[in-house]
# Entry
Amino acid sequence: MTNPLLPRVIEEYTEQYTSEELPVLAELNRQTNLKRGDAVMISGHIQGAFLQMIAHMVRPKQVLEIGTFTGYSAICLAQGLQDGGHLHTIEIDEELEDMAAEYITKAGLQDKITQHIGVATEVIGKLAGPFDLVFIDADKQNYERYYDLVFDKLSIGGYIVADNVLYDGEVVLPIEQQSKNAQAIQGFNDKVKSDPRVVHLLAPIRDGLMMVRKVGE
# Structure
């Protein structure tokens, strides 16, 4: 996300009336912005709080995250795990592994989160499931493929949440004016909309979150 979809004054008001970040998340947010030129990819305060809220509502036994980045969203999602629950997070960039691991440990979640470094389409096939909650926030060209790969591993009543589904607002442009990533996101949104096995909500939070609940096989 590079172009804010809400006026900054509304974002500031939203942050004012949202519970503060956990100290470990605030530190990770700051360090990510200091050390990473692509820090815009971090979930951040509002989206992170939303993910925590969803996780506490779902109370998942197993969570799958596709796209770890520096570990912020994984830490958020792990807050709502059931006792004995576990989160698997996949990241292709091995240079991010140590930073994510450092803050997962600082959060006291090293026994609840397993990091996988590799190509997500390959790693997903090695994970058994079933998953109660899946968060997709990785390369946009593969969103449809990730959806297909995780669907059979998702429990009935389980949720898929996909980030960046408004893609800086490009999805409302004529298709010929959209970037390749925006076109891929549009294809994903259309796929979800036409899937009779799910109910879904596109929530205009930050850069758009597609929330999908599995109701059939």
Summary: The chain has one domain: 8-214.
